[in-house]
Amino acid sequence: MDGISDVAVGVKRGSDELSMYNSPNSGMSSISDRASNGSDSKKLRVEEAPPSRVLHIRKLPNEASETEVIALGLPFGKVTNILTLKGKNQAFLEMGTEEAAVTMVNYYTTVTPHVRNVPIFIQYSNHKELKTDSGNQRTQAVLQAVSAVQSGGSPSSDVQEALAAASSPVLRIIIDNMFYPVTLDVLQQIFSKFGTVMKIITFTKNNQFQALLQFSDPVNAQQAKLALDGQNIYNSCCTLRIDFSKLVNLNVKYNNDKSRDYTRPELPAGDGQPSLDSTVAAAFSKDSNSLLGKIPGALNPLSAAAAAAAAAGRVALAGQAGSSGVLLVSNLNEEMVTPQSLFTLFGVYGDVQRVKILYNKKDSALIQMSDANQAQLAMSHLNGQKMYGKIIRVTLSKHQTVALPRDGLDDQGLTKDYTNSPLHRFKKPGSKNFQNIFPPSATLHLSNIPQDVTEDDLRLLFSNAGGTVKAFKFFQDRKMALIQMSTVEEAIQALIDLHNYNMGGNQHLRVSFSKSTI
Cα(176)–Cα(294) distance, rounded to whole angstroms? Predict the structure, then answer.
């Protein structure tokens, strides 16, 4: 990926530019498309294609493996099938759900996808599913390995080297070709796409900037390594070299520019803040302006928050996004959205202070989080998700705060102040909630369930929220449970409607997204 911060031109929606025949090499028995040899000389058709859980990938390098193609989809959900066409440098990737495929396409619309440093093209396929020959043992082995990794198990032996499940949740990261400073916030934003980042320690060794980064789950570390090893943070520089650390837990003593424990915000900053690494400072002092000018689309490296956001492909404004914790959310369903619904959803990822739906543009809102880290975390997880039937867009705002209406001015309830809300999840230092932050998923974690509430009661409650309950499982003490809706959108709706729901006796239900499946 030549620049995680690039504004992508690599994703094109359209019809599949490919003809697949019933040949022994195709691995496919029931799909036929319009003829095209996939070459650059052919004019590509870019008709709008409807979303599908099958994605068509083109311009793959000759040496690309099935594992590398699968790695493109791993961060977004379960991969259920793959078809590679080596002679055409193309592939089809089937995701477990359409929501996962939509999230993947949305992400790669803002981040140019690369395989082996070659830009590739991803679009929706006209096919709704792949029907491949079950006799293709290599493909089946790779898919079984991926399934094992995603469920926390061990992959099959013939692809163990390519998809080895990490035994450690800690990654060792080396930054090569480091022309710009790489901050803790930049690393946290990039790697949190793959799971909850708990701790980071940075240091310089052998004149190289390095970091140790701990996920909450070894599987997340494995997926991050698969997707990010060899990628560039900025155009043509700051290359990530990633392997597993022998450590299984990091001991962080200070929260400052060099180290951070996101589960313990109360840690001291230590004796003063460390200064910029001397080798990086020297690089800037030589010719900072021309360096920025030589790299198209490069960000102002001194704007850490803008860099962190753009590094995850969320904004492409060079230095314009402030370091505040204010988000701009757009493409909202203005008939349905309320400050309370935004407070509840964004409150999964941080303590929302204020919400303001814009008076003259009611499909947009400003949301003020407690700090910039929480804002970036919410942006990372919620941009591209579907809320009330519309795919929302989340970016950093230029505003530093959300202003309350002037005294005596009625803004029709569009602005709400939640500063003193009892529903904040992260106000308690060291809270376990810091360790249970997961991307939106169809499976929800329920807690604070009264003893007399049955499975049927909860199934009915969540069905009435407008969704279909696919599965349910009580924990042993019956105070907690997992409930699986049919789609991520239904789970988002259920969380908005039922988090803090009064179950009787002043006992309120707690609802979160879960990393587990039933």
Answer: 18
